[in-house]
Design a protein that fits this description.
Distance between the termini: 46 Å
Oligomer: single chain
Helix content: 40-55%
Largest sheet: 6 strands, mixed
CATH topology of the largest domain: D-Maltodextrin-Binding Protein, domain 2
CATH architecture of the largest domain: 3-Layer(aba) Sandwich
Radius of gyration: 22 Å
CATH superfamily of the largest domain: Bordetella uptake gene, domain 1
Structural class: alpha/beta
Strand content: 15-25%
Strand order of the largest sheet: 2-1-3-10-4-11
Number of helices: 12
C-alpha cells in the first residue's frame, strides 16, 4: 500500500486522477472477510461468532463468512490463520483454549503470541463450581468440608487440559483437597455423569450449567469473575469467599489475525467491533451464552492473552500436567 501511494505521488496530479477509481477499490474492506472459528458449527463458540459478525459486518461495511474448522483442539484453525496473508481478510475467533490452556498443556505447532495479531476481545462468561443437587453440600464451605472428610472423591471435566480441568486443579491447590480427575470427551457427557452420580463436582462454563441449574438438578456454589453473574445474583464469587486468583478467570472469546497486520486495519476492526459491543442488541444475543461484552484495545487484549497463557502455563508446570509427555 505504501509503495502504491509513493508511485502515485511521484507521477503527479494527472496520474492521481487516472488512478483514482483503482485506489478507491483498495479501501479496506473491499471483499468478504473469512472468520475462522476453531470449533464445529452449532456450539456456543459458533453462536458467539455468528451473533457478533452479523452486527459487526454492518458496522464495518463488510461481509463476514464464518468458517468452522473444528478438530485438533483448535490447531487446524490456528494453522490456517497464522499462514494466511496479514491483509485483514482472514480473522480467527480465538478463545481460552486455542491461545491459553492448550499451548500451556501440550506442544502445539504455533506460537499463541508471536504468530497472531491481537485485534479485540469480544467477551467472557464465568465458570461455575457445581455439584449434583442430591449431594449433601449446600454451599462452598460445606463443599470444602465434604472434600476433606473421607473419600474417595472425584470430579469431571470436558477433557484433559480444558479450562474445566485446569480450574479444578487450581482450586485443589488453593484448598488442599484431592478429588480425582475423570476426563470426558466434551462438556455434555461430563455433565450427564455428574447428574447420574458418577462424579461429584464440576467446573463448567455458566452457559452449559444454566439448564440444569434452572431445573434444580445442579447446585451452584461459586462463580469465577470479578462480579456475580446477573442471571444468578445469589451465587457468590470466589473473591467474596476469600479464594484468590479466580477473579479474572473466564471462558473468553476474542479476535486475532495473522502476525504482521497493518495497524490501520487493526484499528478499523477494533473500532467498529468496539462500537458493536456497546449495542444492546448484541448484548442481548450474547447473553444467550451468558457472555458479557468486554471492550478492549488491541494492546489490552494482547496483555490479557499473555496473562492468561502465563497463568495456565504456571499451573500446568506446578501440577505436572503435560499431555504430550
Amino acid at each position: 500500500m505504501k509503495r502504491r501511494n509513493f508511485c502515485i505521488a511521484s507521477a503527479g496530479m494527472g496520474a492521481l486522477a487516472m488512478r483514482g477509481p483503482a485506489f478507491a477499490r483498495d479501501k479496506y474492506p473491499a471483499r468478504p472477510i473469512s472468520y475462522v472459528v476453531p470449533v464445529a458449527a452449532g456450539g456456543g463458540s459458533d453462536y458467539v461468532a455468528r451473533a457478533t459478525t452479523t452486527l459487526w459486518g454492518k458496522a464495518l461495511g463488510a461481509t463476514f463468512v464464518v468458517e468452522n474448522l473444528g478438530g485438533g483442539g483448535g490447531v487446524i484453525a490456528c494453522q490456517k490463520t497464522r499462514r494466511a496473508d496479514p491483509d485483514g481478510y482472514t480473522l480467527m475467533q480465538g478463545y481460552v483454549a486455542t491461545l491459553g490452556t492448550s499451548p500451556a498443556t501440550r506442544r502445539v505447532p504455533y506460537d499463541p503470541i508471536k504468530d497472531f495479531t491481537p485485534i479485540a476481545m469480544i467477551g467472557g462468561t464465568p465458570n461455575v463450581l457445581v455439584v449434583d443437587a442430591s449431594l449433601p453440600v449446600r454451599n462452598f464451605q460445606e463443599f470444602v468440608g465434604f472434600m476433606k472428610a473421607g473419600g474417595p472423591h472425584n470430579y469431571g471435566s470436558a477433557g484433559a487440559g480444558t479450562l474445566s480441568h485446569l480450574l479444578m486443579e487450581m482450586l485443589k491447590a488453593r484448598l488442599g483437597i484431592a478429588p480425582a480427575h475423570v476426563s470426558y470427551k466434551g462438556i455434555a457427557p461430563a455433565i450427564n455423569d455428574l447428574l447420574g452420580g458418577q462424579t461429584q463436582a464440576m467446573f463448567p462454563g455458566l452457559a452449559a450449567a444454566v439448564p440444569h441449574l434452572s431445573g434444580g438438578k445442579l447446585r451452584a456454589l461459586a462463580v469465577t469473575g470479578e462480579q456475580r453473574a446477573k442471571r444468578y445474583p445469589d451465587i457468590p464469587t470466589f473473591k467474596e469467599l476469600g479464594v484468590g486468583d479466580f477473579d479474572d478467570v473466564l471462558q473468553w472469546y476474542g479476535v486475532s489475525g495473522p502476525a504482521g497486520m497493518a495497524p490501520s486495519t487493526v484499528a478499523a476492526l477494533n473500532e467498529t467491533l468496539g462500537k458493536v459491543l456497546l449495542d444492546p442488541e448484541l448484548e442481548k444475543l450474547l447473553a444467550v451464552e451468558a457472555v458479557v461484552p468486554m471492550r478492549m484495545t488491541p494492546a489490552e487484549f494482547d496483555a490479557y492473552v499473555r496473562k492468561d497463557l502465563a497463568r495456565w502455563t504456571r499451573l500446568a508446570q506446578a501440577q505436572n500436567i503435560r499431555l504430550d509427555a
